[in-house]
Amino acid sequence: MGLNFLVISGSGRPGSQSLRIARLIEGELAARGAATELFDVHASRLGLWESEASADELGHLAALRAGAERADALVFVSPEWAGMVPPALKNALLHLTGGQIAHKPVLLVGISSGRSGTYPIAELRGFAFKNSQALVIPHHVILRGAEGLFSDGLLTSNDEASRELGARLDAALAELLIYAEALAPARARLLELRNRFRNGM
User: What's the whole-model pTM score?
Assistant: First the structure.
């Protein structure tokens, strides 16, 4: 297949459910023959401004941008914090407006310990990709009650909720792979058009 995927865990907390699910997704993509990378925004501690970043922060930023540049498609795993996308994930996206993810398909995965998880998906779809020009695919997945899901680390876990949500996540990953394959040959031409107008309106 020869495709590369970047999975971004968007929680600012250590040992988060977002990170656990991101690792599970990374494993599922690898099982489909893709090359994968994982970026954990908690571990990276990206600064707000590149001009004021420490050497360590610049190293993490370079790793994020390089991984995004290599990727043919991305997965953003976002918990819901006070009804919003966590600031650490927003900050990471602000550092990816230089064409690194332009015209690349993105799957959004929402994480919630309860029955929420909708608002980060709506927020990301609404405006987060105006200047990065990434392409969010039609389907997204919201994993509610995340602590109890996929306890054995498999999408085919035995409990009913894990089976149902695992099937949905499996289908979304399959869709992402199809988009990645279809868009890869066209990306160079799309980037030529992007050079005329780098920012959205």
Answer: 0.94
Q: Which domains are delineated in the chain? A: 4-194 (3.40.50.360)
Check: CB of residue 97 under 8 Å from CB of residue 62. Answer: no
pLDDT class of 1 with cuts at 50, 70, 90: low
Strands 105-112 and 135-136: parallel
Residues 6 or more apart whose CB falls under 8 angstroms from that of 168 comprise 141
- Closest Cα to residue 86, out of 51, 50, 134, 44? 44
Residue pair 179/137 in contact by the 8 Å Cβ criterion: yes
Q: In the beta sheet, which residues pair with residue 7?
A: 38, 75
Closest-CA residue to 175 (of 126, 138, 125, 121): 138
